[in-house]
Amino acid sequence: MFARQTFRCAQPLRQSFRKYSAEAAPKKSSLTPVYVSVGLAGLGAGIYRYSTGSVAEPKDRPKVFNGEEWVDLKLAGVEDLSGNTKKLRFEFENKEAVSGLSVASALLTKFKPEGAEKPIIRPYTPTSDEDTPGYLELVIKAYPNGPMSEHIHSLNVDQRLSMKGPIPKYPWEANKHNHICLIAGGTGITPMYQLARQIFKNPEDRTKVTLVFGNVTEKDILLKKELEELENTYPQRFRAFYVLDNPPKEWTGGKGFISKDLLKTVLPEPKEENIKLFVCGPPGLYKAISGTKNSPKDQGELSGILKELGYNKDQVFKF
What we know:
- The chain is an alpha/beta fold.
- The protein has two domains: about 30-170, Translation factors (Elongation Factor Tu (Ef-tu), domain 3); about 180-319, Nucleotide-binding domain of ferredoxin-NADP reductase (FNR) module (Rossmann fold), CATH 3.40.50.
- The chain is about 15% helix and about 30% strand.
- The chain contains six helices and 14 strands.
- It has helices spanning about 145-155, 190-200, 225-235, 260-265, 285-290, 305-310, and strands at about 30-40, 45-50, 70-80, 85-90, 105-110, 120-125, 135-140, 160-170, 180-185, 210-215, 240-245, 255, 275-280, 315-319.
- Strands 6-5-8-3-4-7 form a six-stranded antiparallel β-sheet, with helices on one face. Strands 12-11-10-9-13-14 form a six-stranded parallel β-sheet, with helices on both faces. A two-stranded antiparallel sheet has the order 1-2.
- β3 (about 70-80) and β4 form a beta hairpin.
- The longest helix has 13 residues, at about 190-200.
- The radius of gyration is 20 Å and the shape is globular.
- Its EC number is 1.6.2.2.
- It catalyses: 2 Fe(III)-[cytochrome b5] + NADH = 2 Fe(II)-[cytochrome b5] + NAD(+) + H(+).
- It is found in: Mitochondrion outer membrane.
- This is NADH-cytochrome b5 reductase.
- Pfam families: FAD_binding_6 (PF00970), NAD_binding_1 (PF00175).
């Protein structure tokens, strides 16, 4: 989808453009978030509840990753999300430990194919909450001839995968920006979801969030339930726009590719104060939307649709 050099303009978007309400959402009480496990297809799904019970704060729990050492984590469960995408749960040796990841950050994964001279190393962003003890979850899409994604998909329960982190991406603190915009394609949604989840779990963070998420088909929309829950819970502060290259007949969202017209309509104007736009997805998305980054430490120049719309380099971050 995104491998082409140009993006076809999206057809008129029929989904509603809700304006953000000036009314603040009710503040959450200062209760402790507790993760409750619910069985789902042999893996566990989880929801956060608030409890007055005494639970160790994440900062007081042991950390699995220290930024230096590789850790071999055991695969505890697998859930098929689509024909080529899986959610994999890797458990920690210490069930009371948390990952030690910060927001926004990623993990490196490593394995050495038989007969290869060097190991394969690829970064992934966990989709589970950083403060959840005992395990982490990765959502991985298998790409043809993608050595790491195919290897991870081939793993059986109780086999292990080497990981190291955290790999810092964009350090977040509450209310760092007034409004952020997440422009994602495919599995590029994972760091976006990590950032949005951190914002909305913090009752002191009032940041507004707009998501534009492009995929090929409806079944390719990863984390759709989690995103819909955010939108339903925080309608004054979170809105999401979905674009499909091959939508079903009943689809009422965007059609085609993420276009200049769509972004001009749903994003805040460049002149608005203290905004930040984040981009993550396949190479074609970067090329069309923002231009590519030169390296993990060099964001490169801003180009593409966002430059045409008048945004500057400091307003954009490329994951």
